[in-house]
Design goal:
Structural class of chain A: mainly alpha
Oligomer: heterodimer
Strand content of chain B: under 5%
Strand content of chain A: under 5%
CATH class of chain A: Mainly Alpha
Low-confidence stretches of chain A: none
Largest sheet of chain A: none
Number of helices of chain A: 3
Order of helices and strands of chain B: EHHHHHHH
Order of helices and strands of chain A: EHHH
CATH class of the largest domain in chain B: Mainly Alpha
Chain lengths: 103, 169
């Protein structure tokens, strides 16, 4: 059985679509962040697979993947800190309840 | 070195990824969702090993499978203290599902014509950790982006601490 680059790209597309569904539909902020993580994982699969199949010698995709991981680690840290700050102010962290700024 | 990725290992790992993602999205208990995300992260690290990206796979295990999972579980513990807060009603959203399916369909349709010439064969030269490290710290390579990334990480974590500290007022 041959597995090429397109199989990895398909898998990443499916994972990204699932993460997009979660990011749009979830109401708990923690679950929202988990869905964002899922999308970041899909992107990393894309980057690493492209690096391995297309630029194996210069490894560009691997470097991009490492920097993406840094960004998403920062994003998770800040996101969870935001969840805790919101919880401390209003004793809940539901996305649908955060409508103070709604016009 | 085979000329392609092991199909059986890829199938198992991709099933773990997609199944774990579906479990994460459709479980009622948020703590279970955190553990499903952990499983997806570990399966993704397996995929990286399959692609000979050992360093990225190990970073993936350290950052996602350990640090992020612990952070997730901690913030669930703090914000959803009672058991009935962590059990969610099943919230299926047809609009979000339509958006996800539409996005996936567009990407899959676009991919059908792509990756035919270059992507079928695995190149014989595999990335190795030593060359990766040399390139990462080379002055004309990735040293400057690396330093900027570490600065971003420090600023983000200090900002996270600052956000969560007790208010004085």
């Amino acid at each position: 059985m041959r597995v090429g680059l397109d199989a990895f790209l398909m898998l990443a597309a499916v994972l990204f679509a699932l993460g997009l569904y979660g990011a749009v539909s979830k109401k708990a902020t923690v679950q929202l962040l988990m869905s964002l993580e899922l999308m970041a994982l899909a992107i990393n699969i894309n980057l690493v697979a492209m690096s391995r199949f297309i630029t194996p010698r210069s490894m560009d995709g691997l470097f991009f993947a490492v920097f993406t991981m840094v960004i998403s680690a920062a994003e998770v840290g800040l996101g969870l800190a935001l969840v805790l700050a919101i919880y401390r102010r209003s004793r809940q962290s539901e996305v649908s309840e955060l409508h103070e700024l709604k016009g | 070195m085979t000329d392609t990725v092991n199909g059986l290992a890829f199938g198992v790992l991709s099933l773990m990824c997609v199944g774990g993602a579906i479990g994460m999205l459709f479980t009622k208990n948020i703590v279970h969702a955190a553990f499903w995300l952990l499983e997806v992260s570990i399966a993704t690290a397996g995929l990286f090993f399959l692609l000979n990206a050992d360093y990225v796979a190990l970073v993936q295990l350290l950052v996602y499978a350990v640090a992020v999972a612990v952070l997730m579980v901690f913030s669930i513990m703090i914000t959803l203290r009672r058991l009935e807060d962590a059990i969610r009603p099943r919230d299926f959203s047809a609009i979000a599902a339509a958006l996800g399916v539409l996005f996936g369909a567009v990407i899959v349709f676009a991919l059908r014509g792509y990756a035919k010439p270059a992507g079928q064969r695995l190149p014989a030269v595999a990335p190795d950790v030593a060359a990766f490290g040399k390139l990462l710290f080379a002055a004309n390579g990735w040293a400057l982006p690396f330093e900027i990334a570490s600065l971003i990480l420090v600023v983000a974590l200090v900002g996270a601490v600052w956000w969560t500290k007790e208010d004085d007022d």
